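Any chance you could type out a protein's amino acid sequence plus the matching backbone structure tokens because I've never seen that pairing?

——
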Amino acid sequence: MPYKRKSSPYYQIEVQLPGYGSSTQITTGVTDKSVARRMELLLRDIAQRALIDPAMSKLLDAICKTKEISLPEALKAQSIGGLQALSRSLTNPSISIAIEEFKSSSKYDKPTWIGLKKLELMIGEKRLMELTPKKITLMCFELERTGLGRNTVCRQFKRAVSKLLRYHLGNAERNRIFSEVNYSAVDDTRKIHLSPSDLKRIFDTCEQLGYHELSVIIRTALQTSADRGVLLAGKATNSNKAKNHRGLLCSDIKIFHDAETGRYEGTVTLFDGKNDSRDRTVPITDFLCRELMVLGKDKKPDTPIFNTTYQQLDFIWKQLRKAAGFWKEGEGYTLRFKDLRAQTSQYGAMVGIPQQVLASTYGHTGEKMVRRYQRYNAAMSMEQAIALEEKMFGRTGS
């Protein structure tokens, strides 16, 4: 509660604030206890918001520690809805300083690092609050004119600016700014279809190059629609701050033997590092079960099933594509590993698996699609998985 000293006519405040500690003694500058009480409540409210909003944390420091802002100023700002603007006035360092502060306290990946370097080179000495929606949009187009693809600009530069603003200004202010940025990515989905003969050529080339494990990785990707970040363990780059993928572990694979048919049946549980809603369990058929059993022999449950790491895939995948003919002069490589993901849905549609089942099994999380398949028991059956395998690889699955 606000209190008065004998030596001062003004009410003082000293309270324990959530997640902050003691506010120290702060003068309210008023003689009205009810107004002083409102200031105390405001201080508690700012402390609560500071737990999730860096901008409010700076405002709290400015009131309680540095005394840059008085409680009457803060109360006045609140009364006119200007508390966010008041906090923003404290978070306006130069771009260079803002980037250094962000780097020192945040983990970031290589694309973010590249984007921050581009931002610093373009307007390093300008102030953080000069990153208006219009300015961000213009810089995106300027980078595109230098020859960068639109999706590269979004993945590197636009994403880096987003993280920087979120760190310094909080999520709400970042969202407000980016809602007016008029620069979006383009759909990079390429309509690539690999025929059964194309797939056979890929697998034959794997064996010719001595990359048997790669052939199992590819087959797993084709039958589960998983990308390499889900299948392979290891870091995406050499940076210590790069994301470390868990990969597919031996414990994620369950295999059973059917005594009547003599075939193996199993499931693979896939944990998606980008989106928990895409975690899923997918059936796997006899041939792939046998291959995974060989790879997992004598390995511990928490060990990755594949010895190939996330980074190592780049080199052997390039060698495979060139040797298998997926390379054109002037165009470069015409097949990406992520293109394997599309084949699962294409072949699934060919054998008549309902779209909602494909969406559920393979982690398609578009809002409209989710609403469709939530009405059904949308797990893929083993019969459907076998039909898919036969369509892709032939009757034997080899």
